[in-house]
Amino acid sequence: MSGKVAVGSDIGQARRAVEQLRMEAGIDRMKVSKAASDLLQFCLEQAKSDPFLVGIPAATNPFKEKKPCAIL
Amino acid sequence: MCDQTFLVNVFGSCDKCFKQRALRPVFKKSQQLSYCSACAEIDGKVIVWDSFTTNKEHAVTMPCTWVMACAYAPSGCAIACGGLDNKCSVYPLTFDKNENMAAKKKSVAMHTNYLSACSFTNSDMQILTASGDGTCALWDVESGQLLQSFHGHGADVLCLDLAPSETGNTFVSGGCDKKAMVWDMRSGQCVQAFETHESDINSVRYYPSGDAFASGSDDATCRLYDLRADREVAIYSKESIIFGASSVDFSLSGRLLFAGYNDYTINVWDVLKGSRVSILFGHENRVSTLRVSPDGTAFCSGSWDHTLRVWA
């Protein structure tokens, strides 16, 4: 049951909300260009060890079912 | 915001067995389901599987129909689970067949509404929980004591994820108020809040580096938020996708984002390019949960079609 709380109906609640917003507005922000390039760098560095990107040989993959080979 | 679950006597037809009985209404995310007392008593189960052999290793019966959250302890020796019973219980795992796991159950968390998510912190000793009562809480497993509570969401909290670093003290939570909030575990303060989704946020997951997180929502989009830039940096959506995303997870490097949707499919997104890499079919009902294995070789999806599928 997700009801909406009536904001501002209580002065104390409104004051706390403003305080929280002021605090959030005051944090140090990094530029997206720098933050995004860091994410990119991390991703490319880790890509070599990511099994979904690099792929592992079927023989070592524990999830591939091992079927006996039947030669007709 | 629901402070309590209400029990009302209503007569009608049960959603499960369709008999005319006295019903117990159950609320989840403002959807009401009504079960007659016979069906509501049917126990929910928590099962621990061996994913390589598909054997069931452990099974515990929970005294409530819906188990909504479960988590493995970092040591692998215990599991925590909870749901409509408003509690989070910890069960130590034992391979001894003579021991009854339910007997060793330890009730750790108590909320005033359903438990939607739970997660152990870096040790087996603390658990973080999120609840339909709009709060998250940090508990000590041994004593069951509330260590810290996190207030700020305006509606049910549906998901949470802990920051990946060992020294990390933050976690992110997403809720029905469309907000994703980042919290400091020590002070209980909300550090950052993001409100760009257009509907309930069903799932949040940190990027492997810990500097960003992704969220999946009922508005059919997944979004990537950068914590240092303090804003949304990418949206993963397509006009053809109209059903909500119920669960998201990153691959090991963070290049791929796997998202399970209510239209029975799993979409794989390229995180950096913002485009869809692949769409996976196989489930016969909505995909409700999805998790990548810790070594990144496979991921598992759980669905309303009663199956868990491992994709590798």
Automatic annotation (TrEMBL), chain A:
Metal-binding as UniProt keyword: no
InterPro entries: G-protein_gamma, G-protein_gamma-like_dom, GGL_sf
SMART domains cross-referenced by the UniProt entry: G_gamma, GGL
Keyword Transmembrane annotated: no
Gene3D superfamilies, A to Z: Transducin (heterotrimeric G protein), gamma chain
Annotated compartments: Cell membrane
GO annotation, biological process: G protein-coupled receptor signaling pathway
Keywords carried by this UniProt record: Cell membrane, Lipoprotein, Membrane, Methylation, Prenylation, Transducer
GO terms for MF: G-protein beta-subunit binding
Membrane topology annotation: Lipid-anchor
UniProt domain G protein gamma: residue ranges: 7-72
GO cellular component, one term: heterotrimeric G-protein complex
PANTHER family in UniProt: GUANINE NUCLEOTIDE-BINDING PROTEIN GAMMA SUBUNIT (PTHR13809)
Complex formation: G proteins are composed of 3 units; alpha, beta and gamma.
UniProt protein name: Guanine nucleotide-binding protein subunit gamma
Lineage of producing organism: Eukaryota, Metazoa, Chordata, Craniata, Vertebrata
TrEMBL record, chain B:
InterPro entries xref list: G-protein_beta_1-5, WD40/YVTN_repeat-like_dom_sf, WD40_G-protein_beta-like, WD40_PAC1, WD40_repeat_CS, WD40_repeat_dom_sf, WD40_rpt
Amino-acid biosynthesis is among the record's keywords: no
Keywords, in A-Z order: Repeat, Transducer, WD repeat
GO biological process, one term: signal transduction
WD repeats (start-end): 108-149, 150-193, 194-235, 247-279, 280-312
Entry-linked Pfam families: WD40_Gbeta
CDD domains, per database record: WD40
Keyword Protein transport: no
Protein family according to the UniProt entry: Belongs to the WD repeat G protein beta family.
The name this protein goes by in its record: Guanine nucleotide-binding protein subunit beta-5 isoform X4
